[in-house]
Amino acid sequence: MRGSLLNSLFIGLIGLYILAGCRLVPLHGDEPTVIYTSLDFDALRRGDFARLVYRDVPDSSDPQAATKQDLRLINGMIARYTFGALWTAAGMTPAQINDQWLWGADMAFNRTNGHVPTADLLLLCRVGSGLFLWIAAALVFTVGRRAGGIYTAYLSALIFTLTPAVLLNGRRAMMEGALLCGIALVVYAGQCVAAARSTRAALRSGIGLGVAAGLCIAAKHTGAVTVTAVGFAISVYMLFRERLRAVRRLLIVGTVAFAAAAFVFFALNPAWWVEPLQMPGHVLAARSALLVAQTRDSGGYASIGERALGFFREFAAAPPQYYEIGIWSEWIDADIARYEASGLAGISGVLASALVSALVVVGAVRGVQAWRSGAVFVLLVTFALTTAAIFVTTPLHWQRYYLPLAAPVAWLAGLAVRRRAV
């Protein structure tokens, strides 16, 4: 009883720490844009699905239809629906929602011309994102406990919550809070599948994994990295544990999980309803074009050495990257100083990075020693595959693209103090 109370108090304090910093986080240009996309919730609420489905020729009656459609292709849906639900519940109307950020204009122009949300709207949406991050931290605690006991749970959750990049991006009114929550949820569901000892239990867990996977990818498409890693880990573990006897169960779990994930993702993405078979191609083309433009404008990695340096720079406890475009320093330097002086920005620096990295090494050794535990095996494979995927696919040093590694790093570091599985 006392342990449960202490655990609840710890998770509660983590949540308060996360939410306390939401107001102070310096603005990012993607925040107004994601809030702007939350207008989709109003269309969904009114049943106006015609405005949400994909069209080869966008609706000519809406001058912003093409922009809105592009944003639906490349961005997740969970954050926009959440933000829309929040401002609707708060009594706001679509007329009070800002336009998307104009990257070709400066801060003054965007503020003057309605491309920046009001302080109340911005805070409301940030709190929504912060709540996702709070849930993610609670799930990191739970996953760590299943893999290594209570000490692993506390250390993993503490490292995750105090990671500056997690706090900065998870608090902002963008997609990262929902993504981090989705990643932790998928890994938790994967542990449940690995722990199942009967076909019926595996079936129930498989449905849960599918729902979690659908939500994770709907939060942000990069969630597919975690979904793939967890799916691979479960498949290998089940086949090794039960060999040929697991094939039938694995097929059942895989089928129901895939069906549940597809259903959830499809239901949350009206843009896919008209041309579901063609949409993956549209999305891939749009995201590829975006990455090419970002790499061209911001400068991508020129060599494997640069890519490796960028990866290790973001591996653990890296200083927060407040902006990707240099001119933003002129606009938000005062906000950055205020945020960092608040004590709510997390812990970064060489010593913190070295400590977490050392814990990861020790945790990896302890994890390999305990790999027969399904909960541990899922973490090891998720960490390994996520690391490889991020290293190979990240073309430039944008901190947000490394966030899928935040929870796996925290879990592996937590395994350094592993005592027993729960």
Q: Could you walk me through the main structural features you see in this protein, from its secondary elements to its overall organization?
A:
- With 422 residues, this protein is mostly helical.
- The protein has one domain.
- Helices cover 69% and strands 0% of the residues.
- Helix 7 packs parallel to helix 19 and helix 12 (223-242) runs antiparallel to helix 13.
Q: Mean of the pLDDT scores? A: 93
Shape: globular
Helicity level: 55-70%
Roughly how many Å is the radius of gyration?
21 Å
The major pleated sheet works out as: none
- Approximately what portion of the residues adopt beta-strand conformation? under 5%
Termini separation comes to 16 Å
Low-confidence stretches: none
The structure class reads mainly alpha
Key traits:
422 residues; mainly alpha; 19 helices; 69% helix; 0% strand; globular
Please render the helix and strand layout as text.
Elements: H1 2-20, H2 30-37, H3 39-45, H4 65-74, H5 78-89, H6 107-112, H7 119-148, H8 150-162, H9 164-171, H10 176-195, H11 199-219, H12 223-242, H13 245-268, H14 279-298, H15 304-313, H16 328-341, H17 350-369, H18 374-393, H19 406-414
Helix pairs in contact: 1-7, 2-5, 3-5, 5-7, 7-8, 7-9, 7-10, 7-18, 7-19, 8-19, 9-10, 10-11, 10-12, 10-18, 11-13, 12-13, 12-18, 17-19, 18-19
